[in-house]
Specification:
Blueprint (H helix, E strand, L loop, with lengths): L1 H14 L4 H16 L8 H4 L1 H11 L5 H4 L5 H32 L8 H11 L3 H31 L2 H27 L4 H7 L4 H30 L5
Length: about 240
């Protein structure tokens, strides 16, 4: 565990001046916008990817040999990378949730121009079961991005980044086709049972789905990490 924490600290120090200030500024903008009931906080999940982007660039380039010079086990390096991906994006999801909560309870939107004010006011008056959809979108973004990045990390460690990219293109294309097909079928009222699972009608159902999405994401990240450690921990950097 000490080696893992050392690697996380090393990586965070490495990116602290590259991306963290810009992501922090964007997070502050999202919170300020939330005070005026503008829900741009949903982009926090995506923006937090930028924190670890330089680390991923180092890990998948010729600079990767740098890790081989550090006094830590190869398995610790791998585990640290997966933890950074998962918990950085999870922090983005939590910040998005905080922004949505502020949006719901702030009244500063009354200071905005009339057209924008009406839009913000509609959000604050939206029924709870409909407003919870914003939380679901943030959770879905967290799940999708985290699983994709963890899978790419696993395949790049075991095979190569080129192979990982090729496989991701195929996976994303199949996923997009499946989502499009399911969306059309739900729109035409052909898959009502599936619709009730993917889009619960109650707030409690939506929060249960959010919890399931988070649990599945953490389980997938752990599985990808375990497979990577087992197959790539003995490889030379």
């Amino acid at each position: 565990m000490n080696d893992i924490m050392k690697m996380i600290r090393f990586d965070l120090i490495s990116v602290s001046r590259l991306t963290v200030p810009y992501v922090a500024i964007f997070a502050a903008v999202c919170i300020i916008a939330a005070l005026f009931s503008l829900p741009i906080g949903i982009f926090c999940v995506v923006s937090f990817v930028m924190i670890i982007a330089p680390v991923q660039g180092i890990n998948n380039s010729s600079c990767k040999r740098l890790y081989g010079m550090l006094p830590v086990n190869r398995s610790a390096v791998i585990k640290a990378l997966f933890i950074e991906i998962t918990f950085t994006l999870f922090a983005g999801e939590l910040l998005a949730f905080l922004c949505f909560l502020i949006v719901r309870n702030s009244s500063l939107y009354k200071m905005l121009p009339e057209k924008v004010m009406h839009f913000a006011e509609d959000l604050t008056k939206m029924p709870e079961k409909e407003y919870t959809m914003l939380y679901m979108l943030a959770a879905a973004a967290f799940a999708f991005i985290t699983i994709i990045l963890c899978y790419a990390q696993m395949r790049s460690e075991i095979k190569s980044m080129e192979a990982a990219i090729r496989e991701l293109i195929i996976i994303i294309a199949v996923f997009a086709a499946a989502v499009s097909f399911i969306s059309v079928m739900i729109y035409n009222e052909k898959l009502d049972a599936l619709k009730n699972i993917l889009l619960p009608t109650t707030s409690a159902g939506k929060w249960l789905l959010i919890a399931i999405l988070n649990a599945v994401t953490l389980a997938a990240a752990y599985l990808f990490c375990a497979v990577t450690v087992k197959k790539a921990s003995d490889k030379e950097l």
